[in-house]
Amino acid sequence: MLKKEEIAEYLKAHPNESYRSVARLFETSHSFVIRISKSIKSVYENIAPKPKDQDVQSFYEWLKERSEREQQLDRKQTVANITLKESQPIGIAFTGDWHIGAKGIDYDSFEQDIELIENTEGLYSVGLGDYKDNQMPTVHPSGVFDEACSTELQDMLAAHFLARIAPMAIVRGCHEHWDWTISGKDIIGNYCDKLDPMPFNLWHGGTINISLGEQRYKIKARHKIPNESNLNTENAFRRWYDREGKADILAAAHKHDPFIKVMHRQNSQVTYIRCGSYKKYDEFGQRLAGYEGTKAIPVAVLFPNEHRFVVFEQLRDGIAFLKGVRS
Ligand SMILES: [Fe+2]
Ligand SMILES: [Fe+2]
């Protein structure tokens, strides 16, 4: 018999004996004897039973199944494998930081660029995030003063313009991530559902493997990259390459000013790309250092018969070159 049960039996048989004397007898503490005496005297009439091991195991099995079923409905992924059945060179436009719905966006340039991407043969696109401005009182309270329409309408507009450019893959920007922060909603998944063909939902970023003719191209795309610095843009890209390995193109957004750099790493060309933004009127940027966005949709032209790609900072230049090499 355990000591606790022995003491309990003894206390029941000797109700008038002092707890100190019982403690001495059983060589235990006074407080331990008091605790046992309270448990003898208390009758808990409706206490919930202790969980049984088999119930805990059963809950685990249910949890595991629920997790698997949830993942079956989750379309976020980090690798996109795409075959382009084209015999001529193709272009890929890297576009993001639209910030639709904000005040002071260069909407005229935005529309012209959308129309160009939409109507240029052989020009594909990748979305790099911040399609909508999405300022919310719970995230950046003062940001709502810079909005021109509700976030609901911004979603409608973002999906509308994404549908027009039919991107092969889209990533989540920091402004779309606020939907996740406040409600656990992956708004990029909602956009993807509305687009036909449905693009890859590349989550916070991922790898796009493109098969074009005899060539294989590897593109890395993210909205934001770690280690970003206003003093050394290239370093963040170099670190990204070091972290994730060989690729042809690393494309990012977020800083609202374009950047193109052609490098040679591991005996291959790699090009670092950052798109610009249509956000001209920018309370946040002005307060930081008088920043305003610079419009730029970089275009990479990829060749199918040799491993060769040429990158342009501006959409019009990329399209002009693409048209030249496709004719
Ligand atoms: Fe942005
Ligand atoms: Fe951003």
Keywords:
Purple Acid Phosphatase, chain A, domain 2; 19% strand; 6-stranded mixed sheet; elongated; binds fe (ii) ion; 327 residues; alpha/beta
Summarize the structure.
39% of the residues lie in helices and 19% in strands. It is an alpha/beta fold and 327 residues long.
How does the SSE layout of this entry go?
Blueprint: H1 3-13, H2 19-25, H3 30-41, H4 53-73, E1 79-84, E2 90-95, H5 107-119, E3 123-127, H6 151-165, E4 169-170, H7 174-183, H8 187-194, E5 200-201, E6 205-212, E7 215-222, H9 233-244, E8 249-252, E9 259-265, E10 268-274, H10 283-289, E11 299-302, E12 309-312, H11 315-326
Parallel strand pairs: 1-6, 2-3, 3-4, 4-5, 7-8, 8-10
Antiparallel strand pairs: 2-11, 6-7, 9-10, 11-12
Helix pairs in contact: 1-3, 2-3, 6-8
This protein binds fe (ii) ion (2 copies).
